[in-house]
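Example 3.
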Amino acid sequence: MSLVIVKPGLLTTVQDLGRYGVQKFGVIVSGAMDAFALRAANLLVGNEEHEAGLEITMIGPEIYFSDAALISVCGGDLSPTLNGRELPPWRTVLAPEGSRLRFGPIKSGCRAYLAVAGGLDVPPRMDSRSTYLRAGLGGHEGRALQAGDRLATGVPSPGGRRLAEMLANGAQGSDAAVSGWSVASDLLPSYSASPTLRTVAGQESELFDEDSRRRFFGEAFTVRTESDRMGYRLAGGALRLKAQRDLISAAVTFGTVQVPPDGQPIVLMADRQTTGGYPKLAQVISADLPLLAQTNLGGQVRFRAVSLQEAQEQYLNREKGIRALRSGLAQLQTNRNGKVIAHGE
Amino acid sequence: MGSLNGNYEQYGAFEAKFLTLGDAAIVVQFGETIGPRTHDRVRQLAEYLERHPFAGMIEYVPSFLSVAVYYEPYALLLAHAGDEEPSAKNADPGGIAVRLLTDILAKLQASSQTQARIVEIPVCYGGELGPDLPEVAAHHGLTEQEVIEIHASADYLVYMLGFAPGFAYLGGLSERIATPRRQTPRLAIPAGTVGIAGDQTGVYPIVTPGGWQLIGKTPEPLFLPAAMPPTLLKAGDIVRFRPITRAEFDSREVGAR
């Protein structure tokens, strides 16, 4: 089975959950910006959560499927259609041979994720299939997809094959078959065009003056157009240190809010450098990173302080939700009669 | 038992403090100033974690003063809290990570026994490969040859890798050739270029924008994506730069491609 890229869209890349274990060599993690959406899409087609899919940014591609394929589109709503018909997100879809997947206007978020049963079979580099654009590494030839690219898929899992059979049995003629099951709504991140992001303290929070810290939590910040997979560059009232300090470079992570000398905060994202030397004001909690990843350029974000305890609780709830989705789908594959799956907590 | 109160405490042979880096990483910091002593502790912890990663740990990243340890909180709880199905309420994966790291710190030695590896990097200085060499020389009232001799006569310690794959932060640049960054950064610096910025020197492993003063270029690749480890250098190495002629540079660069 292969996918042919008819039109590439704005920035369509192969991503999995990231390249781990090599940050100590300065090799960045990369991976899906909205990891929750990719994990859900993978599970819906019977894949392991970490298989490679496509990250589709703002303007979607046109994709031709040479053979029938079990697919799922999750994340931001970029008006996906399959053979001209609306494709409902967060569901399993059996696309017949020769199908065309297209995208339209942005309805919500800004990044959609396409998973295909078997995953995208690009060669792993340092144990990951994620595209690292700047180093030309991983993904499909280390770059964003272009028209004419052909991507092979791996072998679907037994679970994926059973899901496909179930959909094939209920299918009408040559139309795409859409699952009755979907990701439970209480499991979905509360995507918003102007989200409030929960944060825990950064290592240098205390170095910022009182007024700056108050404004960071009190005001809205606009997502500047220079924002990308590396970092979300925000605009707002300048944030200042009590006294100018030169910091010594140290490790950073996904969601680190750092403030360069111009006072405009940057939230580090999937393609962040491994280390940084700007003061770290705050850290967006893991559970809220999908919300930021789906905030479009020009959108507004606010920040709220929570305890580490709450951050950890939210993290674990998200993981339990993913596990519920996984076991719900597994049950479905065995029983063949279920309709509702995967309630969050 | 360590805590996240941000204070240095004695753990076995030396002092350290624990810091959070969000909800899925803990930083162990060994001091406030860059130097071989702190570096030795960073290196010891990194080497221990390399050999004995704990269940739930994803990876570690050493830097000048500290080691960041990334973990997957759910896996950490499963492995260490003794619950089959961890409850989210009142669970404290960060606390577990601190406890595990506290036990590890107690096992480290007062000073490392490992011998540093010496890596020689051939550099063709000046000319079109090092266009800022005249400026660096003029800035210090030296000749180009003197700058080359000073740069190539020192032993440089690799404190950490970061900024770009295979980019090493080197300690040991002589004050006599320390030079401020350029006013306007270049948009694309070729891979292999050797530069100076303030009291730092380094080699760009991949094409990157940057404001460093460029004094030469090595034909040796620093980022080796198909190899493991994928970099020429690693933290703890000693680097020596060896001046080579343009002819040698050309022959080695052609040979490498």
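The first strand of chain A starts at residue 2 and ends at 7. The longest helix of chain A spans residues 308-335.
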